[in-house]
Amino acid sequence: MTLAQSNASMGPPIETIQQVVLQGDLNQLTPDQKIGYVAGLCEHLGIKQAGKPFDLIKFQGKEVAYPNKGCAEQLRNKWLITIDTPVIHWEDDTVYVT
Predict the structure, then answer these.
(1) Tens digit of each residue's pLDDT (9 = 90 or more) over 4-31
(2) CA angle 57, 68, 15 (to 5 degrees)
(3) Is the dihedral of CA 79, 85, 87, 88 positive or negative?
(4) pTM (2 decimals)?
(5) Contact criterion met (CB below 8 Å) for 70 and 80
(6) Are the CB atoms for 63 and 56 separated by under 8 Å?
(7) Long-range contacts of 30-39 (CB under 8 A, 24+ apart)
(8) CA–CA gap between residue 63 and residue 55 (Å, rounded)
(9) How far apart, in whole angstroms, are the C-alpha atoms of residue 70 and residue 66?
(10) What phi, psi does 51 have (nearest 5°)?
(11) Which residues contact 70 (CB under 8 A, 6 or more apart)?
């Protein structure tokens, strides 16, 4: 194994890791590293990567992993969160929302 192969197998340089961790910018990651990053997010959150829960988008000059509707649905199902239409009624000067 050459020195270049050894360095390549060690992962991205520390500057790139700092940019991702401290600024949330994925610009300098390779496509494979971005896939690994999203896979790590999914594992951390306990959701399935196959549902494509994140979109990689450009936002304010950075490339970020943006949680989409699929991510929200998986998290809602995991944590048993329901979305119901509230019932609103008035009694005297008080509003009750249930």
Answers:
(1) 444 455 678 888 888 888 988 999 999 9
(2) 40
(3) positive
(4) 0.73
(5) no
(6) yes
(7) 37/65, 38/65
(8) 10
(9) 11
(10) -80, 5
(11) 51, 52, 53
